[in-house]
Amino acid sequence: MDPKSESQSVATPPAQPGRPARQARSAPPAATTLAALRASDHKFVTVKQEIRQNLLARLRAGEDAFPGIIGFGQTVLPQLERSLIAGHDVILLGERGQGKTRLIRTLTGLLDEWTPTISGCEINDHPYAPVCARCQRLAAADGDALPVSWRHRSDRYGEKLATPDTSVGDLIGDIDPVKVAEGRTLGDPETIHFGLVPRTNRGVFCLNELPDLAERIQVALLNVLEERDIGVRGYALRLPLDLVLVASANPEDYTNRGRIITPLKDRFGAEIRTHYPTSLAAELALIRQESQLAWDGEEPGAVLPAHLVQVIARFTRLVRASPAIDARSGVSARFAIAAAESVAASAVRRAAISGEAQPVARVCDLPAIVSSLRGKVEFEVSEEGREQEVLEHLLRRAIAETFRATLGSADLAGVLVKFEEGGSVESGELIPAPDLLRRIGEVPGLAKIMERLGMDGGESLGEAAAALEFTLEGLYLMRRLSKDTVDGGAVYRT
Predict the structure, then answer these.
(1) pLDDT for 257 beyond 80
(2) What is the residue-averaged pLDDT of the chain?
(3) Phi, psi at 484, each rounded to 5°
(4) What are the Cα distances from residue 478, in Å, to 393, 396, 404, 471, 482?
(5) What proportion of the chain, given as a percentage, has pLDDT over 70?
(6) Do residues 70 and 10 make contact, with C-beta atoms less than 8 angstroms apart?
(7) Coarse DSSP helix, strand, coil percentages of the chain, rounded to the nearest 5 percent
């Protein structure tokens, strides 16, 4: 399979809310004045031209233009690439948790690593083309000695969550009373406090949940998208902006809770629909990648076996497809991530209580996620009161499907023989791995079972217990064993 076809939006997590992660930086160029910048043969291009050139260069080189993106390779990314090449501003439209914001944040990787700005400029004016009153005054006064600073691409990103209380001043700007108090007149353009959009000039600006923005505030963006300029209150001010504006929206918000006014929709060059992973492989890759990012490079404290990750992925897909779930609200990718984290946490808790040396997640850690994840799913009205039952049923289905896919054709006679003549095995979330293995005794063929489950068959008691407990649960779901539920655990018997 083409790796790009399994490629959805996950960038390195941001160092600050709403900003891309700090990237490894090379040293900035040496030019510190306008004269030195000209001598370096630096060429001025707009942000859209910059992104277009860098994107085409990556495509020609066969490089991944959106690293870390999973599941969008043949659907969303080609549309986004065409839009960026065309120089369009974009709306990403999709249900919650599909990675829209993460995808937007990867756009900074298509900017040049360093770009020159006039030192101290609030809106990042290019030394060749100053637009604000301050920089035009300095350029006229200093000439070739105009001071130049260098701005890294990771700093050329702005983001705002559109909320009903967002004002025009937040986005565009307003009068700064401090500057007025310092003696400037109200007609002086330098009394303006610029909003988030102009402060992201010569960069990428993301406006999340655009339909939640009040319609009268959306009007303030019309000139930004078409004429590429802004106006603040009654000032005779035309401030041309150079940026890429990308918005995100949920479909139900787009049509019901709020709306994007028609003139604003018309000014976006492209509307691109996103989606959840379309394959189990993409779902698994997303869970692994996102869990690793959520743990910020640290170990979660517990081993999460591959077969349990597959159960969580299948469970998530079954919940999304269930008619009991409100499809308009969707089932976020965060649902699966939270499930993986909860299962790992359950294993860590067991190890802390029982004294296990290395916690390994087991099937007994799965049921706890049902109650903790109920609030992340919107059910149909007809299912009111059955939420727990529906999720428990779907989790059993996910375990059964994973068992059939991994151990369905395996020789499990060595496990079944332990239950001849009425034998039984008790397991539970607080029973440590050594105790479980002691209760079931030596199992012929255990190494082969572990191998089929992607374990190395080594000396890990935790992994051996996880493999055996998954086998017992699978045999129960295949009706080859029976199970009695007890407080905090289960007893398997014939």
Answers:
(1) no
(2) 87
(3) -110, 125
(4) 14, 11, 9, 10, 10
(5) 89
(6) yes
(7) 50, 15, 40
- Angstrom distance (rounded) from CA 168 to CA 201: 17
Same-domain status, 250 and 290: no
Question: How far is Cα 483 from Cα 490, in angstroms, rounded to an integer?
Answer: 6
Helix residue ranges, H only, 276-305: 280-294
Instruction: Quote the domain boundaries for residue 429.
Output: 280-493
Strand partners for 243 = 203
Identify the CATH number of the domain in which residue 208 sits.
3.40.50.300
The number of folded domains in the chain is 2
Evaluate whether 324 touches 390 at the Cβ level (below 8 Å): yes
Residue 4 has pLDDT above 70, yes or no: no
Cβ proximity of 180 and 191 under 8 Å? yes
- Look at residues 218, 248, 273 and tell me which one is the last residue of a structural domain: 273
pTM value is: 0.84
Q: Read out DSSP for 203-241? A: EEEEEESGGGS-HHHHGGGHHHHTT-EE--TT----EE-
| Paired strand residues for 116 | 150
Q: Do residues 269 and 414 both lie within one domain?
A: no
Query: Which segments of 295-412 does DSSP mark as H helices, in order?
Result: 306-321, 333-354, 368-373, 387-407
My answer on whether 142 and 284 are in the same domain is no
Asked whether residue 250 falls in the same domain as residue 310, the answer is: no
DSSP-derived 3-state class of residue 194: strand
Q: 64: burial class by Cβ within 10 Å (0-12, 13-18, 19+)? A: middle
Question: Average pLDDT of 72-93?
Answer: 96
If 0-12 CB within 10 Å is exposed, 13-18 middle and 19+ buried, where does residue 234 land? exposed
Task: Kindly report the number of other CB atoms within 10 A of residue 493's CB atom.
Answer: 14
Residue 301's pLDDT band, with cuts at 50, 70 and 90, is confident
Q: Identify whether the C-beta of residue 463 lies closer than 8 Å to the C-beta of residue 430.
A: no
Question: Last residue of some domain: 242, 273, 304?
Answer: 273
Both tokens of 304, joined, read 């999460």
If asked whether residues 155 and 39 sit together in one domain, one would say yes
Joined together, the tokens standing for residue 172 give 């565009």
